[in-house]
Amino acid sequence: MTSWMRQIMRGAAAAAMALILVSSANAAGTLRYAAVSEPAPLDVMLTTATVTLTIGMHVFEGLYTMDAHNEAQPMLAEGETLSDGGKTIVITLRKGVHFHNGKEMTSDDVVASLTRWAKYGVRGKLLFTEGATVAASGPYEITITLPEPNGAWKNLLGQLEGGGAIYPSEIASKATETPIEQVDYIGTGPYKFSDWRPNRYVELVRFDGYNARDDASDGYAGKRVANFDTIRFIPVPDVGTRVSGIQAGDYDYAETISGDLYDQLSGDPSVVVRKSGAPLFGLFFMNSKAGIFKDNYPLRRAVQEALGKDAALRVSFGPEALWNAQGSLFPEGNFWHSDAGVDAYNTHDAAKAKEMAVAAGYDGTPIRLLTSTNYQTHFDQATVFVKQLAEAGINVQMIVVDWATLLKMRAEPEQWDIFVTHHGVAPDPILMTFLNDGYPGWWASPEITALKKEFTSTADLDKRKAVWDKIQALFYEQVPAIKVGDGYAYDLMSPKLEGMGPSMFWPTFWNASFKP
Amino acid sequence: MSFFVLKRVTAMLLTLFFASIIIFGFIHVIPGDPIYVMLGDTATPEQAEKVRHSLGLDQPIIVQYLQWARRALTGDLGRSIFYQAPVLEAIADGAETSILLASITMVWVLLIGVPIGMIAAMRHGSWLDQTLSGAAMLLASVPTFWVGLYFILIFAAWLGWLPSSGYPSIFDEGGIANLRYLLLPSLTLAAPNAALILRLTRASMLDVSREDFVRTARAKGIRPWRVTTRHIFRNALLAVVSAFGFTFAALLSEAVVTETVFALPGIGRLVVQSILNRDYPVIQGIVLVVVVIYLVVNLIVDISYGLLDPRVEMQ
Is B228 strand, coil or helix? Predict the structure, then answer.
């Protein structure tokens, strides 16, 4: 037995030695990012999947991007002029911007990219409605012509998530509805795509031909400098391993750590806690197309009345530092923050809800609530709400499936009455999923349709804000979805990382570096 | 001998054929599809339909199966929807990790399970046997993710001796020294398996030691050590060897919890990730490969039976 132990000790010592030798070799300039999962293909026009965008933000750029105050600022664009009441938008492009394949970006590339986005992109149709066009009006100038003015145009072009990223024309013009191939992951960003090894990593390397903007860095906007030679996005599915990996120095940044570890890690000198700058909030969508909630707004309000959001948030996010039970669809400090309708947000009155349900004609029919276990917060919040609704005499039957199944089922109106998802802070309210009448839930009442038209037909921000207040009030009246409350994810980073800038939604690593 | 092998191989191919139908059928019966996972939460049904069509997923299931089977026969397992790379490439990359992990684990299992099992059997009923068997039960019952997380905490986060997670290929920078990434995972995985092999070795040695020929051997005055190694152990080995084969095959495909805890790019995790993504070509490819591995390991075990025990006739 003793010789055994001696051998094990000897093996461990040899391994420790090897570790010391190798770790000193790989330290220089590689940022190791522990991600929750692998990304979908990096065609950012076609997807809104989170990990994909975290990587894609470094590779691709759009004409505009968002600053720290969530306002759109030029990125590949130089500036713009609007005419014809906002129906004609002329955008001048920066000169000397190069793609990762060495080609200089011109209006051909932008037109081809926006055309592909308009046709197949997740959000292209929001800007390029029927009759809208984009054309080159010079080597460094494009002209967008819209049938109606669209007050959200710049915010739409400033969102990379499912947005109008600029690809080289030869790639964009042949691209279809299927994601582009890995060899075509060519953008203008400070890092370029290098390698993707299943379940090992996606690797980006510094793009030496990057021509940074001169204006100071501000949110995602302004100057971007790539200090790392390499960034590796490594899928580390287990949260405990992500935490230990940072503590052990095997990763420099680890995303999405669980709430129950927050207090403990906040006091740990071997890690730095980085709270997300933008909340995510759970949304419980009501089925407006079929089933018990179709056209029955009083019953929806009864459900809303029964719910207490604090309990759901505490169960799903943990310490109070990580959540905020507030009903505005945009957080405080955001331009779109509004108090309209929020009195109905967090009432938690079972007795009144019971009366309201009876008055709405509710007869105890089970309400089908569709949720998944892939997102623990969804399941936790649903569990709390089911109990609260039972107290109000509203009978809910949970249908628990995995996320891929939920996505399939929710597209079929006959399958569910409520489904659970979450939403982030959008750069423009028009990007909120419940305003998209094609999105499951299918909120398309005459009232919201009229308000949406009014909302996008002007570029005047104050007028748009006034309309937005009305939309939020209607949100609490017709209840297309129920907002759970703002939850803040948090990440961990190594204390040796500096220059990260203010916390936004996507962590970005241009301008960041290791302390000397 | 050759007739025996031929018969087994034919049976194997038939099994493979039925397995392929079951694999294909089952995967496509699970609700959900890869399209929304790939496009994200906000894709419209029209977009999803277009992508589904371009991937051929809107064709009848029989047509999809025939196309897949035809290509699989030529060694082409198709392309991953998510990795945008040939399935075989993804499997080969995962196989390196899985095979190395399973092999190192088997070395631990062999080094720990068999000798201690022998000792326990030789001293059966003693305090040593009680202690060893008790420890084995404990190791077999503790969940691997728990053991794994504690190994990471102690050896990576506190002591800093070993890397916490991941595994860079031995063909990449770092070379053979990268095997140190597999030290903690293999020990984690070895714990329950070594305990089982230990129990099995002990039990089957005890069984054999009660046989008549052992008593005869002892009566003939053969030295106790020789009786143990040549007569008891050799005969007890049969059960242990077949358990070994299955343990190895199981390690290749069932190491998923350990692979997840240690973020290892192995086959187990590849298949789970692919199931969550509904990356059909990858799931089908992996299950097919795993079935083939099981069948081949089975065949090897059957053949080695005959070599170990002349009474098993190969007809």
Answer: helix
